[in-house]
Amino acid sequence: MGPHFKIPPASLTSFTTLSIALSIILYDRYFVRLMRSWTGNPRGISLLQRLGVGLVLDGLVMVVAFLMEKKRLSIAREHGVVANGGPVPITILILLPQFVMIGMAEAFLIVGKIVFFYHQAHEGIKRLGSSLSLVTYGVRNFLSSFLVILVANITQRNGRKGWILNNQNASHLDYYYRLLSIIRLCNFLFFLIVCRFYLYKPEVLESQEETDKGDSQVVEHNRS
């Protein structure tokens, strides 16, 4: 994009926001209709399948992040900027795929969990259940911070180099992303086990048209 054009790294999160918005639109307008013709489910896919797709995409994000970071570190070594922590001559757009995929995963997971709790929670705790679906993201952020500190401390024991250092070029974030990929795989396998024994709460759907509008309105309903 030119040597004088610089993109602030933090601005990449805007691509995640755009990806979420676009993914939700495409999901409601096209994905549901396409899958409905195959599955016969008025929602296209079941509530748990929607969450499962989100978990798979979330895991693939870490795989892509691992590959991109491995590539970045390889270029850093080739240009001798590991020790001094200097800028790596590589476009920041190499990070774009994973930020877009994060948005796609969130479109399935965030909305999917809200819809799941809204339709499957007991009538008396329906609003509380929908709120709990968002509380999980706060808990996730705390656990993520704890995991970063834990990994940094453990990998630096006994004089070892460590995975997470102040010098990003000397760090091994690729190892960390690989660890996150394994954790997400274990999480997905546990999800499959839970799904195997889960029994859906019976629902009465008045019409397909109501179902199409319902899931989109659930999110707005829980915001009010």
Strand content: under 5%
Counting structural domains, the number is 1
- Secondary structure tally, helices: 6
Please compute the radius of gyration using only Cα atoms: 21 Å
What form results from the Cα inertia axes?
Answer: globular
- The arrangement of helices and strands along the chain is HHHHHH
SS content category: mainly alpha
- The strand count comes to 0
**Stretches with pLDDT under 50, minimum 5 residues:** 204-214
| Termini separation | 43 Å
Largest sheet: none
Helix content: 55-70%
**Overall pLDDT confidence:** 85
Question: Could you explain how this protein is built, in words?
Answer:
This protein is mostly helical and 224 residues long. It has one domain. Helix 2 packs antiparallel against helix 3 and helix 3 crosses helix 6. The longest helix is centred in the N-terminal third of the chain and has 32 residues. The protein starts with 12 loop residues before the first helix and ends with a helix. Its main location: membrane. It is found in: Membrane. Pfam families: PTR2 (PF00854). Belongs to the major facilitator superfamily. Proton-dependent oligopeptide transporter (POT/PTR) (TC 2.A.17) family. Keywords: Membrane, Transmembrane, Transmembrane helix.
Provide tags for this entry.
69% helix; 6 helices; mainly alpha; globular
Task: Give the secondary structure arrangement, pairings included.
Blueprint: H1 13-39, H2 47-78, H3 96-120, H4 126-155, H5 173-197, H6 208-223
In brief, what are we looking at here?
The protein is mostly helical. The protein has six helices and no strands. It is found in: Membrane.
